[in-house]
Write a structure and sequence with these properties.
Helix content: under 10%
Mean pLDDT: 96
Order of helices and strands: EEEEEEEEEHEE
Number of helices: 1
Radius of gyration: 14 Å
Distance between the termini: 40 Å
Number of strands: 11
Largest sheet: 7 strands, mixed
Structural class: mainly beta
Low-confidence stretches: none
């Protein structure tokens, strides 16, 4: 059974840092593009960042560019989201998703396209206090 499990969320003060992890199992992780998304209370889900499977090309949303960094470690079946200089508006549930053909179809910014991805995680809460 394919699974994505997020961890690393929590409560942090504005200006602080967190590193989120997305651990994959049950599918060939190396072949999949992985994206991070977030959904704040009362708002729609938005893309945060995504990384390709074949060349590790990345995309970061303008709202997090320069503060957040997505990376992957295929040996550990894990994608990370390093979040620095956190702001109260970064408060949300963060989740990861995997897709086999995202980058093939839509390029390195595939996570901007809201179609049905192959696998989804449950999410982890990030709360940034002011």
């Amino acid at each position: 059974e394919a699974q994505l499990v997020e961890s690393g969320g929590g409560l942090v003060q504005a200006g602080g840092s967190l590193r989120l992890s997305c651990l994959a199992s049950g599918f060939t992780f190396d072949d999949y593009d992985i994206g991070w998304f977030r959904q704040a209370s009362g708002k729609e889900r938005e893309e945060v960042a995504c990384i390709n499977s074949y060349d590790n090309m990345t995309y970061h949303a303008d709202s997090v560019s320069g503060r957040f960094t997505i990376s992957r470690d295929n040996a550990k079946n894990t994608v990370y989201l390093q979040m620095n200089s956190l702001l109260p508006e970064d408060t949300a549930v963060y989740s990861c998703a995997a897709d086999l053909h995202g980058a093939d179809m839509y390029g390195s910014a595939w996570c901007r396209v809201p179609y049905e991805y192959d696998y989804y995680g449950q999410g982890t809460q990030v709360t940034v206090s002011s």
